[in-house]
C-alpha cells in the first residue's frame, strides 16, 4: 500500500483537515446531517480513483468541498475527487457507499492523474445509542468505521427497518413411512444450509428473536377406494428466542395398498429438551370398500378419533376378524393392533405407527402409513393417522373407519379454534413478522 500509517488528532470543533501528503490523516469533523462529530482518520490515495459503490456524483469546487459533501451524507464512507483537466478549482466528486476493505479491493483502484481518493475511518462509536431493536454498535472492518451491526431480519442505518422472512419446512420429497435423508430441497430458500437431519427429523436453530406466526399441518391419509382424511392445521403466534433449537418432524401422506390406504403422519415441532411445542394430527387412511368410511380428518382436540389414543398415546384397533390394520402413533406412545372387537387387548405390530419418541416411523403393511406415525392399511381397512394422540381403526366385515390423529398447539392443548385442515403432505411454516 502506498499510504504511510501516520495520523494525528486535531481537537478543534470547527472543520479542520490536516494533509500529510499521501498518508493516513486525522481530523475532527462535524457531520452536517446529524450533528455528530467525526473523530477519526482519513485514508488518502493521490492520483487514483475508486470506481465502486457510487452513491452520488456532484460537482464541487475543490477537494475540501467534496469532503464536506461526503461528511454531510450519513451513508457516505469515502469519496473520489477528480479535478477537471482545464480548471484548477472545479472538479467531479464521487461519493462512495463503501470504501476499500482492510487490505482488500486494491484492484478497484484505477490510476488516474488528478484524482484523489479519501476514506473516513471513525474512532468513535456514535451509533451506540442509536441502534434499534436490540442491535449493537460495532466496528465494521469492511468500511473501517463503527456502525450498527444489524442481524437478520433488521436492516437500515440504525437497524430500524426489518425484512419479512418465511421459513417453510417440507417433507423434502420423502415418501412413505420413513423420513427425508437429504436437505437438498432447501437450496435457494432461507433454510439452505441451516437444517440438519437426524433419522428424518429436521433440526433447526431459531435465527433471531421475534414474534413469529406459525402454521403446523399434518399429512392426509392415503386414498383407497375411499378418500383419506385431511391433516389438521394448528396455527398461532409465538415469541421465539434466537438460538432455540427446534426438532421438526414433517408428516407424510399415507400410501395406497391393494385396496385401502395407510394413515397420514402427524407433524411435530418439539424443543430440544423434548417439550412439545405443537403437533398437528394426520388424517385416517381411506377404506378399501364401498361400505368403508372416508378416513377421519386430523382432530381439533388432543385425542385421536375412532378408538384413538388419549394423552399422547397411540391409537388402537377394534376388529371382529383377523385384522392387522395399524393404529396411528402418538407423541409418546406407539399405535397398536388388535384382533378383538372388545378392544381390550391391543398389542404391538409392525402395521402400527411409532410414536414421535420412538422415531415416528409409519406402520409397514399393505399400504404403508406416512412418516409421523401413520398406521398401515391391511386388506380393506385403512390405517389410523399419527398425531399428538394417534387415530385408531374400527374394522368389521360390514365396513370400517380409520381415525385421525389429535393436535396440540403452542405448548398447550388446543381449543377447537385455530385448527383447520389441509390435504397432501404436512408442512411447518414460521413467518416473520
Ligand atoms: C424446554 O425449552 C423451552 C424452550 O426453550 C422452554 O420454553 C421450556 O420451558 C422448556 N421445558 C422444560 C421442561 O425445561
Ligand atoms: C379425551 O378422551 C378422554 C378419555 O375418553 C376424555 O376424558 C377427554 O375429555 C377427551 N378430551 C377431549 C379434549 O375431548
Ligand atoms: C377378546 O377379549 C375378551 C376379553 O378380554 C376375551 O374374553 C376374548 O377371549 C378375546 N377374544 C379373542 C379372539 O382374543
TrEMBL record:
Annotated signal sequence range: 1-21
Domain spans labelled EGF-like: 123-160
Disulfide bonding pattern of the chain: 127-137, 131-148, 150-159
Source taxon at top rank: Eukaryota
Coiled-coil regions, chain positions: none
Keywords, sorted A to Z: Disulfide bond, EGF-like domain, Signal
Protein name from the UniProt record: EGF-like domain-containing protein
Provenance organism: Pocillopora meandrina
Amino acid at each position: 500500500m502506498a499510504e504511510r500509517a501516520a495520523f494525528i488528532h486535531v481537537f478543534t470543533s470547527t472543520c479542520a483537515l490536516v494533509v500529510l501528503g499521501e498518508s493516513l490523516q486525522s481530523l475532527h469533523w462535524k457531520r452536517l446531517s446529524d450533528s455528530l462529530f467525526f473523530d477519526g482518520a482519513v485514508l488518502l490515495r493521490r492520483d487514483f480513483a475508486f470506481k465502486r459503490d457510487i452513491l452520488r456524483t456532484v460537482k464541487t469546487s475543490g477537494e475540501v468541498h467534496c469532503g464536506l459533501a461526503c461528511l454531510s451524507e450519513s451513508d457516505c464512507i469515502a469519496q473520489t475527487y477528480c479535478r477537471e483537466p482545464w480548471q484548477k478549482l472545479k472538479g467531479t466528486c464521487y461519493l462512495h457507499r463503501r470504501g476499500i476493505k482492510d487490505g482488500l479491493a486494491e484492484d478497484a483502484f484505477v490510476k488516474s492523474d488528478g484524482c484523489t481518493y479519501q476514506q473516513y475511518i471513525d474512532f468513535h462509536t456514535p451509533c451506540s445509542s442509536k441502534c434499534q431493536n436490540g442491535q449493537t454498535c460495532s466496528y465494521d472492518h469492511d468500511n473501517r468505521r463503527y456502525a450498527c451491526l444489524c442481524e437478520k431480519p433488521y436492516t437500515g442505518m440504525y437497524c430500524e427497518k426489518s425484512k419479512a422472512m418465511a421459513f417453510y419446512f417440507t417433507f423434502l420429497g420423502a415418501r412413505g413411512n420413513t423420513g427425508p435423508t437429504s436437505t437438498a430441497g432447501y437450496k435457494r430458500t432461507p433454510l439452505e444450509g441451516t437444517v440438519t437431519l437426524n433419522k428424518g427429523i429436521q433440526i433447526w436453530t431459531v435465527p433471531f428473536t421475534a414474534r413469529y406466526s406459525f402454521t403446523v399441518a399434518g399429512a392426509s391419509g392415503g386414498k383407497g377406494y375411499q378418500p383419506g382424511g385431511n391433516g389438521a392445521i394448528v396455527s398461532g403466534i409465538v415469541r421465539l428466542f434466537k438460538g432455540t433449537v427446534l426438532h421438526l418432524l414433517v408428516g407424510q401422506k399415507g400410501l395406497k395398498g391393494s385396496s385401502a390406504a395407510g394413515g397420514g403422519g402427524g407433524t411435530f415441532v418439539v424443543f430440544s429438551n423434548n417439550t412439545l411445542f405443537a403437533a398437528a394430527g394426520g388424517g385416517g387412511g381411506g377404506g378399501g370398500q364401498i361400505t368403508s368410511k372416508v378416513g377421519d380428518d386430523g382432530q381439533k382436540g388432543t385425542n385421536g378419533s375412532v378408538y384413538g389414543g388419549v394423552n399422547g398415546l397411540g391409537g388402537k384397533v377394534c376388529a371382529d376378524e383377523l385384522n392387522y390394520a395399524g393404529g396411528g402413533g402418538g407423541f409418546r406412545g406407539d399405535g397398536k393392533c388388535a384382533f378383538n372387537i372388545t378392544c381390550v387387548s391391543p398389542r404391538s405390530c409392525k402395521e402400527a405407527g411409532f410414536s414421535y419418541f420412538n422415531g415416528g416411523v409409519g406402520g409397514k403393511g399393505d399400504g404403508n402409513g406416512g412418516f409421523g406415525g401413520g398406521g398401515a392399511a391391511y386388506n380393506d381397512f385403512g390405517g389410523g393417522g399419527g398425531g399428538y394422540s394417534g387415530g385408531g381403526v374400527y374394522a368389521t366385515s360390514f365396513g370400517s373407519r380409520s381415525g385421525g390423529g389429535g393436535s396440540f398447539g403452542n405448548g398447550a392443548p388446543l381449543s377447537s379454534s385455530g385448527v383447520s385442515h389441509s390435504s397432501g403432505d404436512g408442512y411447518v411454516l414460521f413467518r416473520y413478522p
